[in-house]
Design brief:
Number of strands: 9
CATH superfamily: Alkaline Phosphatase, subunit A
Distance between the termini: 20 Å
Strand content: 15-25%
CATH topology: Alkaline Phosphatase, subunit A
Number of helices: 12
Order of helices and strands: EHHEHHHEHHEEHEHHEHEEH
Number of domains: 1
Length: 279
């Protein structure tokens, strides 16, 4: 099966809608120029990181896949974007926290075996992971986002992946440390926006459609997991084709997986019930 499009999914963990629309000047500039579109998307409940990761990729709720907390880490049973792209003959790549490898390739995560792998027959063909071991309030243990963006770019150019995901915990960790109404968060958003802006045009030039979004938001005090616009609502920026919904339509996080597969021309799993938001 020949895939129609190549897609990259960029997850800026923990960035709420309000921060994206105020501080991501490069992304907003592309929206203003008509080169990108943006919608509001609402995360699942609980709006906990691991729960959102599993729902983003499977298109089912935490109540169905059973990843109900950051302590519920196991190989998810449902079909996901990786498995469906592989079924269509595509190559996949991931530059993410190790949870994604455990959910969609194998668990538990072996730091030596799984920190980096290139496996022809795995759901994730080319994986580059980090664990953030030692994470805490005083040391967030997050890699440089420029390094992560460069690593994803390497996978696209060296291994010619058809689908790739990048996930960074920088903003989530900053929110937990400092909250959101502060200079530290303003500068963190400014910095990651600038780093992303150096790589995004290169991905597009290389033929990729790109989604930039978040898994969940955060309260002003840096909390998430519960209900509310502050904890659940995120921006979704789209750099690509297709007919999207009108401005002001609220997207459902469960629409992400079927939308990506639809754009690529890969089969949508029968467990993914939400409608793609791009036609």
């Amino acid at each position: 099966m020949a895939l129609k499009n190549k897609v990259l999914l960029i997850i800026l963990d923990g960035q709420p809608w309000r921060d994206a629309r105020r501080y991501m000047g490069n992304l907003e500039g592309w929206v203003q120029s008509g080169e990108a579109r943006v919608w509001k998307m609402r995360a699942v409940l609980p709006s906990t990181s691991a729960s959102c990761y599993a729902s983003i990729h499977t298109g089912v709720t935490p109540q169905q896949h059973h990843v109900v907390s950051n302590e519920s880490i196991f190989r998810v049973k449902q079909a996901d974007i990786f498995s469906q792209v592989r079924a269509a003959g595509g190559k996949t790549g991931a530059v993410t926290h190790s949870f994604w490898s455990e959910f969609f390739n194998r668990a538990p995560f072996d730091m030596v075996r799984d920190i980096e792998y290139d496996e022809e027959d795995s759901p994730i063909n080319h994986g580059r992971f980090h664990t953030m071991t030692g994470y805490g309030h005083k040391n967030q243990m997050t890699p440089s986002d420029a390094d992560l963006f460069a690593t994803l770019t390497m996978l696209t150019e060296r291994h010619k992946i058809d689908y790739g995901i990048l996930h960074t915990c920088t903003l989530d960790s900053m929110g937990h440390r400092f909250g959101h109404d502060c200079g530290e968060m303003d500068n963190a958003c400014f910095a990651i926006d600038a780093m992303l802006a150096h790589f995004l045009p290169r991905w597009i030039k290389n033929g990729y459609e790109v989604i930039v979004t978040a898994d969940h938001g955060q309260s002003d005090r840096g909390h998430h997991g519960g209900r509310g616009e502050d904890q659940q609502d995120v921006a979704l920026y789209w750099f690509g084709g297709g007919d999207g919904p009108k401005e002001g339509v609220l997207l459902d996080q469960l629409q992400l997986a079927p939308t990506i597969l639809s754009r690529m021309g890969a089969p949508i799993a029968n467990t993914m019930k939400a409608e793609p938001f791009l036609k």
